[in-house]
Amino acid sequence: FFFSSRRRHTSSLCDWSSDVCLPISPISTHERPSRVMIVDDDTVSTLLLGEALEGAGFEFRIAASGERCLEEMGGDTTLVDVVLSDIKMPGGMDGFELLERLRAIDDTLSVVLMTGYDGYEMVRRAMSIGAYDYIGKPIRRMEEAIDSVRRAAGATRLVRERAELLEEARERNELLHALNGELQILASTDALTGVCNRRHVDLSLERQMSGRSAAPFAVSLLLLDIDHFKRINDEHGHELGDEVLRMVALTLLSTLRPQDLVGRYGGEEFLVVLAGVTPREAMTVAERVLGALGDIEIEHEGSTVRIGASIGIAGIEQDEPDVSARDLVRGADLAMYQAKDNGRNRVVLGVPVSRPARY
User: What SS3 class is residue 348?
Assistant: First the structure.
């Protein structure tokens, strides 16, 4: 099994059978660059992604189908840190089946799926069968895709390190507990902001909604989208954009109750789950959040950056019948877009919405 390294060769992308590929030496995973297998039949976007990965210090290889990916691995997945696979591919195997096959072979290997069909059901299915993360196509912010791959590679390495420690030094229990704690945090936390990631929020919300059948309670969601975030990135740079995201997350955590669930739901979107809070009560909470965000001033190169947000709300009363987590999220999403349409930096109360999933 071989990996190409275009930092050591001047040739174009190396095919699996090329004689200019270098064999992987049996060095420690601590010493070598992270390795990514890209599985996609879209040549142009794959080349662009590969160039970006290489520029970020990764080694990468390309397989045009899920079958080709498994064939080239030959059952040995330990030389790969991340598989980055499209969902829709020609042939008999799509990205979901490839994910399931890889998880059956090696459950330490992180798989990130790519899709141009960013529907709730598709994302939920990917996460439920073990995807580490998903990336929308076309990739609009390559640095976010690279960051996702970097976190996935880190997760793979942490899991494999834990397995090695179990075999080599079972007496090191304290270190193993620390590593397990890191893995749990990594699996549920957004690395940039420190709040929950989308996968953890979705799973937690599903559990809460399932629990309403036994003991009904009110539930409300706030879906917050930072206004003019692209302009902030364009005018002040992505480092300041990252700082804005961290400030919004910190403001949410400091404004809400300890038991409220806060998660980064997309690039500049945050989802808040308020258990035991009616939709009308959630309006008050959202207005308080909006006021706290409005008090933020970030000084940058002689200018002051202020933060605004559009917030959509959807929820159900305690005595209302069950609705799905998906319908609540959709309702909050539509209300958030209505807030955008109404002039931004405001709160709109919506209702749970049921509609066919988009694929």
Answer: strand
Provide the token pair at 248. Answer: 């919004």
Catalytic residues: 268
Do residues 316 and 218 touch, judged by C-beta distance below 8 A?
A: yes
CA distance 216 to 317: 9
Closest CA to 147 of 277, 241, 236, 62: 241
Q: Is the peptide bond before 216 cis (omega within 30 degrees of 0)?
A: no
Tell me: the pLDDT tens digits for 205-219? Answer: 999 998 888 889 999
Number of other CB atoms surrounding residue 343 within 10 Å: 9
Q: What is the pLDDT of residues 164-194, one digit of tens each?
A: 777 676 665 665 566 566 666 667 888 899 8
Is residue 106 within 8 A of residue 77, CB to CB? The reply is: yes
Q: Which of 355, 347, 265, 357 is nearest to 312 (CA)?
A: 347
Radius of gyration of the chain (CA): 22
Are the CB atoms for 256 and 272 separated by under 8 Å?
A: yes
Burial code (b: 16+ CB inside 10 Å, e: under 16) for 243-254 equals bbbebbbebbee
Q: Does pTM surpass 0.85?
A: no
Share of the chain above pLDDT 70, in %: 83
Q: Environment class of residue 352 by beta-carbon count within 10 Å: exposed (0-12), middle (13-18) or buried (19+)? A: buried
Across residues 231-236, what is the average pLDDT? 92
Helices 66-73 and 95-105, axial angle in degrees (round to 10): 20
Q: Which one, of 80, 248, 204, 235, lies nearest residue 153 by Cα?
A: 80
What span, in angstroms and rounded, lies between the C-alpha atoms of 36 and 115?
A: 18
From residue 136, give the alpha-carbon distance in Å to each of 197, 299, 327, 339: 16, 32, 21, 24
What is the pLDDT, as a whole number, of residue 303? 86
Instruction: Record the tokens describing residue 149, joined without a space.
Output: 């791959």
Backbone angles phi, psi at 59, to 5 degrees: -100, 145
